[in-house]
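Researcher: Here's my situation. A collaborator sent me these components and asked whether they could plausibly form a single complex. I don't have experimental data yet, so a predicted model of the whole assembly would be a useful starting point for our discussion.
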Amino acid sequence: METAAATRGRPREFDVEEALAAALRVFWEKGYDGASLTDLTEAMGITRPSLYAAFGNKEELFKRALDLYETEKLAYVGAALAAPTARGVAQRMLEGTIANITSECRGCLGVIASVGCSNADSPIRADVRGRAQSSRAAMIERMERAIEDGDFTLPVTAEAMTQYLTAVMQGIAVQSGAGASRAELEQVAEATLAIWPGR
Amino acid sequence: METAAATRGRPREFDVEEALAAALRVFWEKGYDGASLTDLTEAMGITRPSLYAAFGNKEELFKRALDLYETEKLAYVGAALAAPTARGVAQRMLEGTIANITSECRGCLGVIASVGCSNADSPIRADVRGRAQSSRAAMIERMERAIEDGDFTLPVTAEAMTQYLTAVMQGIAVQSGAGASRAELEQVAEATLAIWPGR
DNA sequence: CAGATTACATACTTATCGGTATAGAACGTT
DNA sequence: AACGTTCTATACCGATAAGTATGTAATCTG
C-alpha cells in the first residue's frame, strides 16, 4: 500500500536518519516535555512543516527516536545477557550503562522520559514502560538460567535479582543526570560487583 | 526586621502551611516544570496574586515545598543513620524510602525534580543537589564508623557504600514512578539486604 | 514545455505559560 | 466614620507552546 510514492515530486533535502539522531540528542538532554519543537527543528536543521511531514508529530518523532536509542544505545543489553555467568551479566550491564550515560548525553533516556513526563498517564510513559517490559522479561529468563546453573550462593529469585540489578542501573542513571562524575558511577558498579552473591 | 506587620490590614483567608502541603503534592506528582501555576493555585485553593504575595514566585514556592518535604517526608533518614549497624542503616533507609514513595505520591521528589527539570543548569537542580549533598555527607560519616566498627565482611569504602545504597534507593524511586507495585519494590529492598555484606 | 506532486519557507493559529496591574473587600487604627 | 493597609478577584501582559495554512521551489511524468 505504502510502497508506491517512488521519487515523485521535490526530493527531501535532509537525511531522515541524521535528523532523527539529532532529535534523539535533544530528547535525551531535555526530556519529552522539555524538548520544544524549536529546540528540535534547530538541532535537526529542518523546518517545522518538514518535521511534521516526515515524522507526523512530536510524539511519533519521540517514538522513532526511542527506536534509534534502543538499537544503537541499548545494544549492550543483548551482549550482557550472553555472558556466561550471572556475575558476568551484571558486570556487562553495569559497564554498558555507565558507557551509555556518560557518552553523548547524561542519564538514561528511559528514566528521563519516564520520570520527567509531567502527567503520569501520558502515552509517552506507557510506551517507555512497554519497551522496558520486554528487556525485563529477557533479564528474568537469564536469571532463571543462572539459578539453574548454580551461579548464586544465596537463595534468590530471578524476579528479585532482575528488579535489583535494574534498580542499581537506574540509580546510576539518576546520579549521572544529577551531575555525578564517572568515577563516582564506577564506584557504584564496583561495589555492586564486590557484593554480588556468586559467580 | 520582618517581625513587624502584626495584624494590620485584611487578614489572609487561607492557611499557609495547608497551601504549602497542597503545593508539595502537586510538585511531587508533576515535577517542577510540569506543575503549572494553574495546577498549583487550584490545588492550593487560592488565587494567583495570593500565591505570589505569600510565596514570592514559583521557584521560591518550590523551595518552601522542599523544606516541608525534607522535614516531614525525609525524617526517616536521621532515624536510619542512628541504627546500630550498617545493615540496620540500610534496612531502615530502604524501608523509609518505600514507605515514602508509596504514600501520598509516587516516586521521590528529589529524583523527580532533578531528572525532570528540562534544562541542566536550572537553579532548581542546583538546590536539590545541594540538599542531597548534606545527607550524603552524613551517610558517608555513618559508613566510616561502620567500617571502624567492623560491620563489613568485605573491604569497602564509605563513599562507595554510600553511593551504592543511594543508587538502590533512587532506583526504587524510579521504579515506583514508573508504576511498579509495592511488592516489587520490597523485592528490591529484600534482595539488597540479603546481599548486604556484613551486619 | 505543461502539469502533477512533493518539499521548503514564512507566517500564522489557538492555548497555555509565568507573572502582574487594577479594582474592590476586609481588617486595625484614629 | 475616615484612613491606611493588606488581602482577594478579575482580567490582563508578553512569551512561548504545539501544530498548520499558504505560497513557492524543485523534482518526475507526460
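Model: Some features of this prediction you could bring to your collaborator: Chain B touches chain A through 53 residues (CB under 8 Å). Residues 119 and 190 of chain B are 36 Å apart (CA to CA).
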